[in-house]
Design a protein that fits this description.
about 100 residues; 4 strands; single chain; Alpha-Beta Plaits; four-stranded antiparallel beta sheet; alpha+beta; globular; 3 helices
């Protein structure tokens, strides 16, 4: 299984707009879980601390395999959400790593 972690810094400078954008992006991301094959689980967290250096939100998704992650990244619905990410996020950082199987 592969874990896909994406941290976002949103463009909006005003707190209320940043919160609204985070909620919109959260809804769009979570809507991918039931429609993209190979997605095992998906979680979105929105930072509530507003501490300096923190990202605004994070996506954590688990995929059956590296191939399933690649299919997710090419899926038309994911590509649609990437357009929203481009509009709302100033920066994103990504880490993908294999999860050890549970014994």
């Amino acid at each position: 299984m592969i874990r896909h972690v994406v941290m976002f810094t949103l463009r909006a400078e005003q707190e209320a707009q940043r919160r609204a954008d985070a909620a919109e992006l959260e809804r769009a991301l979570l809507a991918l879980e039931p429609v993209v094959p190979g997605v095992r689980a998906m979680q979105v967290g929105i930072d509530d601390s507003a501490a300096p250096g923190h990202r605004d939100m994070v996506l954590i998704s688990d995929h059956d395999s590296p191939e399933a992650l690649a299919e997710y990244q090419r899926h038309p619905e994911h590509l649609r959400v990437l357009e929203l990410v481009a509009a709302l996020a100033a920066e994103k950082s990504v880490v993908d790593f294999a999860l050890d199987p549970v014994e």
